[in-house]
Amino acid sequence: MARYVVDVMPKPEILDPQGKAVLGALPRLGFAGVTDVRQGKRFELEIEGDATDEALAEVQKMAGTLLSNPVIEDFAVHVESQA
Amino acid sequence: MKVGVVTFPGSLDDVDAQRAVRLGGNEAVALWHGDDDLKGVDAVVLPGGFSYGDYLRCGAISRFAPVMTSVIEAAERGMPVLGICNGFQILCESHLLPGALIRNDHRKFVCRDQRLRIENTRTPWTSAYAEGQEVTIVLKNGEGGFIADEATLDMLEGEGRVVARYLDDNPNGSLRDIAGITNARGNVVGLMPHPEHCVEDLTGAGTDGLGFFTSLAAAVLA
């Protein structure tokens, strides 16, 4: 079994209201100096067999088709090292 | 005219949309998300709600429901499709319409009677209105901020594809106050406000929404 990780982030130019809400909450909790927060999503996919380039390409396809919306989000895919 | 109204798991406004279709002078046909059969309808409404719980992104999972394969094919052949609120989100996720809808810029759910200007009356859903007509239609959304890149916004404006624009206050941070758009062919319309809730004086902010449902009949007779 191999674990593939897909990180999805709102594109830099897209307003991220959730990140803004977190940014607003941090000073109220006494955390100073934070100038920006962006909130994204992390997907962990377990796929049968050893990690292969073919499987990685499939995960890229999944990320571009369903896991992210290319209009508003960027994604990055990597294989997580075996435990 | 037979107008299909799709019910997804989590749709809220499918029954109101069916009622609005009937009040508009057409026959409402219930369509099911898990069935790719469009039952011979002449047009389709994707109603509001929280299909699939808005999981992943609003409309992202619905877009791959079996019924949507048929809706996308039919839309590409020219069938009129109206997506309201969650339906608009599904149309953007399907890439039948450009852009995307993100969380309201003020981060709160908004529910209000919204002033709008109808700017494109050449679609099968808006032909009953006069160009530039100002109407009041209820709006309720948490993720209704319409966004697209500058080039796409300029294209939409240049081609007259902004169907409706917010007047007075912008309720959700939509770029250029855009409340609704259409595709290049003009048969697919996405709209964030809810015309199906404004079709009877008894229940709602007047009847300004009825035009979205009478336009179809008028389009057939024309």
TrEMBL record, chain A:
GO molecular function, one term: ATP binding
EC code(s) of this entry: 6.3.5.3
Domain of life: Bacteria
UniProt cross-references to SUPFAM superfamilies, sorted A to Z: PurS-like
UniProt keyword terms in alphabetical order: ATP-binding, Cytoplasm, Ligase, Nucleotide-binding, Purine biosynthesis
Claim: Cell wall biogenesis/degradation is one of the keywords in the record: no
Pfam families xrefs: PurS (PF02700)
The reaction(s) this protein catalyses: N(2)-formyl-N(1)-(5-phospho-beta-D-ribosyl)glycinamide + L-glutamine + ATP + H2O = 2-formamido-N(1)-(5-O-phospho-beta-D-ribosyl)acetamidine + L-glutamate + ADP + phosphate + H(+)
Subcellular location: Cytoplasm
GO BP terms, alphabetized: 'de novo' IMP biosynthetic process
Coiled coil location: none
PANTHER family assigned to the protein according to its UniProt record, in alphabetical order: PHOSPHORIBOSYLFORMYLGLYCINAMIDINE SYNTHASE SUBUNIT PURS (PTHR34696:SF1)
Similarity section: Belongs to the PurS family.
HAMAP family reported in the protein's UniProt record: PurS
Protein function: Part of the phosphoribosylformylglycinamidine synthase complex involved in the purines biosynthetic pathway. Catalyzes the ATP-dependent conversion of formylglycinamide ribonucleotide (FGAR) and glutamine to yield formylglycinamidine ribonucleotide (FGAM) and glutamate. The FGAM synthase complex is composed of three subunits. PurQ produces an ammonia molecule by converting glutamine to glutamate. PurL transfers the ammonia molecule to FGAR to form FGAM in an ATP-dependent manner.
NCBIfam families, per database record: phosphoribosylformylglycinamidine synthase subunit PurS (TIGR00302), PRK05974.1 (NF004630)
Protein name per the record: Phosphoribosylformylglycinamidine synthase subunit PurS
Source species: Nocardioides gansuensis
UniProt lineage: Bacteria, Bacillati, Actinomycetota, Actinomycetes, Propionibacteriales
TrEMBL record, chain B:
GO MF term set: ATP binding; glutaminase activity; phosphoribosylformylglycinamidine synthase activity
The UniProt record lists the keyword Chloroplast: no
UniProt cross-references to Gene3D superfamilies, sorted A to Z: 3.40.50.880
UniProt GO cellular component terms: cytoplasm
Compartments in which it is found: Cytoplasm
EC numbers on record: 6.3.5.3, 3.5.1.2
Record's keyword terms, sorted: ATP-binding, Cytoplasm, Glutamine amidotransferase, Hydrolase, Ligase, Nucleotide-binding, Purine biosynthesis
Domain of life: Bacteria
GO biological process assignments: 'de novo' IMP biosynthetic process
CDD domains in UniProt: GATase1_FGAR_AT
Catalytic activity: L-glutamine + H2O = L-glutamate + NH4(+); N(2)-formyl-N(1)-(5-phospho-beta-D-ribosyl)glycinamide + L-glutamine + ATP + H2O = 2-formamido-N(1)-(5-O-phospho-beta-D-ribosyl)acetamidine + L-glutamate + ADP + phosphate + H(+)
Main localization of the protein described in the UniProt heading: cytoplasm
Active site per UniProt: 85, 194, 196
One Pfam match: GATase_5
Pathway membership, UniProt: Purine metabolism; IMP biosynthesis via de novo pathway; 5-amino-1-(5-phospho-D-ribosyl)imidazole from N(2)-formyl-N(1)-(5-phospho-D-ribosyl)glycinamide: step 1/2
Oligomeric and partner information: Part of the FGAM synthase complex composed of 1 PurL, 1 PurQ and 2 PurS subunits.
Family matches, as PANTHER family: PHOSPHORIBOSYLFORMYLGLYCINAMIDINE SYNTHASE SUBUNIT PURQ
HAMAP family xrefs: PurQ
Function per UniProt: Part of the phosphoribosylformylglycinamidine synthase complex involved in the purines biosynthetic pathway. Catalyzes the ATP-dependent conversion of formylglycinamide ribonucleotide (FGAR) and glutamine to yield formylglycinamidine ribonucleotide (FGAM) and glutamate. The FGAM synthase complex is composed of three subunits. PurQ produces an ammonia molecule by converting glutamine to glutamate. PurL transfers the ammonia molecule to FGAR to form FGAM in an ATP-dependent manner.
Name of the protein: Phosphoribosylformylglycinamidine synthase subunit PurQ
Source species of the chain: Nocardioides gansuensis
High-level lineage: Bacteria, Bacillati, Actinomycetota, Actinomycetes, Propionibacteriales
